[in-house]
Design a protein that fits this description.
The structure is a single chain. This protein has nine helices and no strands. With 160 residues, it is mainly alpha-helical. One of its GO terms (cellular component) is mitochondrial inner membrane. It holds the Pfam family ETC_C1_NDUFA5.
Length: 160
């Protein structure tokens, strides 16, 4: 049976070959991309394929930021994690409220709205885990281990 199958392979290979394959390929470097056109840039980066653009993206970002802000209230006010998350979310909310267009918000935040929404969803899922583990509760007698710096040449070159 294997002998019969091997005799069949050249027929299949010849039938599947595409003679104009090299003529139809165009390198990405040959494409002129206007980096000021955010929609076209998203197409080439692949954001559209993975995060899907929906109408009202700026509004969805505001909702996601508000969700993170409400979730982070479970952490103590004194924790650095809560302060960092609140500061980031409040800054992004301020940018969203002061700019009417999606492109302006993306320009100021230097990120795609779809990516920011995804980041907010991930942060909202992370907050309960951080709050549950309470990394801010460190025993008073705990000391941080300090490793002395050792020059790489001393390790890599054997002493003579």
């Amino acid at each position: 049976m294997l002998r019969r199958f091997s005799s069949f392979l050249p027929v299949v290979r010849n039938a599947c070959e595409l003679p104009a394959l090299s003529h139809g390929f165009k390198a990405v470097a040959d494409v002129e991309i206007d980096f000021n056109n955010r929609e076209l840039l998203k197409k080439y980066v692949g954001i559209r394929d993975h995060l899907s653009r929906e109408p009202g993206t700026r509004g969805k970002l505001i909702e996601a930021l508000s969700e993170v802000l409400s979730a982070i209230k479970a952490a103590p006010e004194t924790s650095d994690y809560r302060r960092a998350v609140e500061a980031t979310c409040q800054y992004r909310l301020k940018v969203c409220q002061e700019n009417e267009s999606d492109a302006a918000v993306e320009e100021v935040l230097d990120a795609h709205l779809e990516e920011l929404i995804k980041e907010c969803r991930e942060e909202a899922r992370l907050v309960p885990h951080v709050v549950g583990n309470k990394p801010w509760e460190v025993p008073e007698d705990y000391t941080v281990p300090v490793v002395d710096y050792q020059d790489a040449s001393a390790v890599l070159e054997p002493k003579k």
